[in-house]
Amino acid sequence: MSQLWQTYHLPSTVEEAVDLLTNFAGGARIIAGGTDLMIDLRFGGGHATFDALVDVTRVAEMIQITPNDGWCVVGAAATHTAVVGNRDLEHGATCLVESCGVVGGPQVRNVGTLGGNVAHALPAADGTTSLVALDAEADVAWGDGRREWLPIASLFRGPGISAVDSSRDVLVAFRFRLSGEREGSAFKRIMRPQGVALPVLGCAVWVRLDESRQRYEDARVCLSPVAATPVRADAVEAELRGQPVGEASLSAAVAAAYATLHPRTSKYRATGEYREHMMETLLRRALPLAAERARTGVASAEGVGMG
Amino acid sequence: MSELRITVNSVDHILDVPESRTLAEVLRYDLGLTGTKIGCEEAECGICTVHVNGTPVNSCIFPAFKAQGARVLTIEGLAQGEQLHPLQEAFIEHGAVQCGFCTAGLIMTGAALIDENPDPDDHDIKVALKDTYCRCTGYVSVISAIKSAAAVQRGEAKLPVNEPVVSEPMRSVSRNEKVQDSIERVTGKAKYSDDFTFPGMAFARTLRSRYPHARILNIDTSKAEALPGVIAVLTHKDVPGENLHGLVYRDWPVLCADKVRYMGDSVAIVAAETQDIAAQALELIEVEYEPIQVVGDPVFAHSLEAPILHEGREGGNLLKHIKVRHGDIAQGFADADVIVEHTYHTATTDHAFLEPECAIGVPAGYDDDHQKLTVYVGSQIPYQDRNQIALALDIPEESVRVKGVLIGGGFGGKEDIAGQIHVSMLATVTGRPVKMLYTRQESLLAHPKRHATVIRIKTGAKSDGTLTAVEAELYGDGGAYASLSDKVMTRATTHATGPYEVPHAKIDCFAMYTNNPPSGAFRGFGVTQSAFAVEGNMDLLAEALDLDPVELRRRNALRVGSTTATGQLLRESVGLVETLDLVEKDMDRSSDFQWAWRDGDIAYGWGIACAYKNTGLGGGAPDRSDAEVEAFEDGTIEVRTSSADMGQGLATVLAQCAAEELGLPFKQVRVLLSDTDKTPNGGPTTASRQTYMSGNAVRLAAANLREMLSKVVAEEIDCPPETLRFEEGLVRHNGSNVRFGEAVRLAQTQGLSTRILQEYYGPKTQPLGTGGDMHFAFSYATQAALVAVDTLTGEVKVLKILSAADVGRAINPLQTQGQIEGGIVMALGNCLTEAFIMENGVPWSTLLARYKMPSIKHTPQITSHLVEHRTADGPFGAKGVGELPSINTTPAICNAIYNAVGVRVFRLPVDQDALYRAMRADQPELHTAWQDVK
Ligand SMILES: Cc1cc2nc3c(=O)[nH]c(=O)nc-3n(C[C@H](O)[C@H](O)[C@H](O)COP(=O)(O)OP(=O)(O)OC[C@H]3O[C@@H](n4cnc5c(N)ncnc54)[C@H](O)[C@@H]3O)c2cc1C
Ligand code: FES
Ligand code: FES
């Protein structure tokens, strides 16, 4: 294997990581688990090589998962395995656990990170889909020294294009509110047994029921990929708010998806027509499940490991 | 920071290595721990799994410096001294090791699982091993081995091995003797080609074509030659002998001169001090091409507009027209009450053996061990390699030695030349050992595939179900070079009536040259393709006639006394009906049996299909295997032949045959395979022929040895030779015994050689079209598949496969079962997951990530019966098994899908996207597959 990078660095703080990137002036790149990066470097075709790789998996604040006062901060370098094994997340961000649980196989989940999933900026990435439904924010350390929390959706600029330049900036962490009373979430996806390891379609939903626990008070839905970036399905959400849980609202939500979302055909992955129908299948699987979790307050992740 | 501190298998290391290394490279190349294998470098196959601080990771994408300060555990560190880890023991016992190339990955992944979860169930095991592939075993034995090891680790008794039931076990034959080298395979000590290194070794790479079809105008290697570290750059001008190779027709350039015909074509080869430099040098070679119109599919290839690939060749792009004529086809259809006619498409598929091709050439006279030009390679046909190397280098065959090493899976894909000639040339020119290791991506690009085949088939039957006629036309995509197309497509043609009596048949097959990768041998050898069509039509007939699919098959099944469509009278050993009976019994067809039912959104369906497959080359080709047995004074013997054990367990079978004849304990038999200087020619390892052919050669050699020793001992103790019995390592006569080794010594003191060379010729066969026996034996099988189709997604899951196979005799029952399970799961890939996609000659499936083989999560519950209708001339009655299960799995699954949801699949692999849309639209036919999603 030809030399894809020259030197390898293991900083222990975010500042150190940013400084390293700055010093290499574009010649270095962040590596977390490497499950996307190593493949891109080897087979991306661009003959890209780097002077340095900056490994962020030993930066303490980037690997911690810290629940605090109804919120949770998940370090960007937390592995999928760490996310899946976290009980607070299983209960309070079930969709995220379910989506990290179907990424690759154990060896990939053991090193692949949530931050890498987001930074890679593919609309179909599983962890990303759930973070969008959780209305997460991202903590970004920009190369110019600024550090700020931003809405997750604002990071995506196009397929594979992120506002975070991994040769300059560092995604430090994510935060979102953990599901509380009358809240629940779920993630489901469709895979095909052939071809690349990205879902045909993924669907994450988060709902809050009203006091009666019979009606949706609020809902957030992310179906991906239906656009160049992962986006919330506003029209679908609108059909749910204030409506009773049940077939009528579900049908309306499905109808809104058909009416407003138009997934495309992608070669050797799925036809647009199939994806359209899968929006329905997934909504019909994920929504009632999330509502049930919200109603009962009991949530255990489904399908982990059987991606 | 260029100092790497890591603890590997409890040993602390401080290494000064480049920071760009991966962990796999450090382990294999810097520390010499070659037990960790590399199969893809894409994080896909998982066979490179090691533990870093207790966690399993893919070492191929793990930067070595990421492990700074960490503890690493590899397969070499798992055993405690001589004491194997419970998983290592269980893998051996349960037959979960075939070629062994994936074994380290499976065991390391499994070890992490049972450390964390002391009592894993099937689901837990499937989750943990989901991305750790094995191409050989089908995973059934892997699951049981892991459960057993977990029990042992919990302090409980190990679990029983699921041993198949066989009839009349003998002393060694029909017993589950253990694979030679199995301890080496589970401990990481077993050496495959890339695990060998020699002092002064250089590394080679191949420059492949940039176009599927183009004229070469100029090749300029000067810049590459000038790159520091480059030792040699060779092109067609440097081929000393004939610049063509090929197994049946010599049409494949060693290095292309004026034309390239597929993207995998070799244009230049480079030897350099390192892999990296060799790779860089390739980029510096300048080739001027003039692209030519691409011939992308076999039907176009046959048209007048298509450019001719091999200009000047008589017949143009038609590689071979194969015909079967039997009876009077017009009469056959006139006799029919029902006729069904359909067109089926199969996909190009790749063997995806887990070990990419690797060859090492060591020049003549390099050191004491290498007096001749020596090539180390995991090859299915060492003697033909030798012949092809000699021709290309223009040297006598005897001056080349091909040393076969362990093969990490073959399945037909390691019969053609890969790097063998190239390393021979480079070693000769540079005077240094040269290794050429293909990357996975190169392997996908270069080596021959399974023929994509278009099959139009028309089947007629009377209202009672009796078949009257089959007419078929097949177009096989032979790709750029002939490879074994002629033979493979002949098999597809002659088997196109299925294992049924069909009085009238007319079958035409056109094997065509195209600008796709060459197609060649692949488990099932063409029959996998035609069976998809034959068995689909059988179910359509059953439906049209309102007959039970099992009954229809039983009515027409070949039996003793039947005549095949090539005019062969079957005189013995036809166990098809018994396989049907056994599978039907397992389906539990009591009164409430249903072929299909629904449970909510899930549709369930059973499907059935039969298969038969010839053993041996047949068709009039002289089939010969030579073997040698040598006995020693210490009571051991060595069996020698150049036949390949690519994981199917041939070495064990041969040892069992010899042990049986000589009454020796199994452990007193060694087997040496595939060294053209030390082992006689066993012929190609193909066509399920080796158990029969080399098995017979060994058995006869051993029998001759026994006879000779009998005479010697009889004389010594003064008794008639017939009264002696060879048992338990002794030569027995009434009360007195002579040790086997003593008998050998006696013979030697009399100046007799205890080394017996046996030439064995298989029973004579007839060429196609001449009637008579085209093959000396056939194996038969039936399978039923139970599938679940999710009607809301189109996803297909195979829940159960019930199999029964007539193998004549299972010389090693557990291994035979392993062949069947592995074949079933491989064929499940053929049906559901695999297609090597090309776009007008340009491969899209350039990565393993774009070519998915079945993983453990696809493994259904498999029940398999061995049926043993002995064949008179086979060793102890045995015939071939290797290919059989890969034939009827696909149609059984497709028939099950039809029964479940009413959609018939005519094109592979089954596409859930299209299946879902067909269900929704109430379309009963599906003519598009995954590769049509564009
Ligand atoms: C076999 C296999 C199966 C897979 N299956 C799935 C799947 O089912 N679903 C799915 O969504 N994905 C899948 N993936 C893709 C991949 O594993 C995930 O996207 C993973 O989360 C990437 O994380 P990583 O830490 O490995 O990223 P890396 O490869 O380390 O990095 C990816 C990119 O992000 C940048 N980056 C990483 N971390 C940061 C950071 N903190 N700040 C700034 N930039 C950063 C890197 O520079 C790089 O450009 C699969 C991959 C493989 C190899
Ligand atoms: S996953 Fe590492 S070699 Fe295949
Ligand atoms: S034994 Fe698993 S790949 Fe051969």
SSE layout:
The complex is a heterodimer of chains A (307) and B (934).
Chain A: E1 5-9, H1 14-24, E2 28-31, H2 37-43, E3 50-55, H3 60-63, E4 65-68, E5 71-75, H4 80-84, H5 87-92, H6 94-100, H7 106-111, H8 114-119, H9 126-133, E6 137-141, E7 147-151, E8 156-158, E9 161-162, E10 170-177, E11 183-190, E12 201-209, E13 216-224, H10 234-240, H11 247-260, H12 272-296
Parallel strand pairs in A: 1-3, 2-3
Antiparallel strand pairs in A: 4-5, 5-10, 6-7, 6-10, 8-9, 11-12, 12-13
Chain B: E1 3-8, E2 11-16, H1 23-30, E3 49-52, E4 55-58, E5 71-73, H2 86-93, H3 103-116, H4 122-128, H5 140-153, H6 182-187, E6 202-208, E7 214-220, H7 222-226, E8 230-234, E9 259-260, E10 266-272, H8 275-284, E11 286-291, H9 298-301, E12 318-326, H10 329-334, E13 338-345, E14 358-362, E15 373-377, H11 382-393, E16 400-404, H12 420-430, E17 434-437, H13 440-446, E18 453-461, E19 467-477, H14 485-494, E20 504-512, H15 527-545, H16 549-556, H17 576-586, E21 596-599, E22 602-615, E23 624-631, E24 637-641, H18 650-662, E25 669-673, H19 690-717, E26 725-727, E27 730-733, E28 736-739, H20 740-749, E29 755-761, E30 777-790, E31 796-806, H21 813-832, E32 838-839, E33 842-843, E34 861-867, H22 885-901, E35 904-905, H23 912-920, E36 925-926
Parallel strand pairs in B: 1-5, 6-17, 15-16, 19-20, 24-25, 31-34, 35-36
Antiparallel strand pairs in B: 1-2, 3-4, 3-5, 6-10, 7-9, 7-11, 8-10, 12-20, 13-18, 14-15, 14-17, 18-19, 21-22, 22-30, 23-24, 23-29, 26-27, 27-28, 30-31, 32-33
Helix pairs in contact in B: 2-5, 3-5, 11-12, 14-15, 15-22, 18-19, 19-20, 21-22
The site of flavin-adenine dinucleotide has 34 residues of chain A, from β2, α2, α8, α9 and β10.
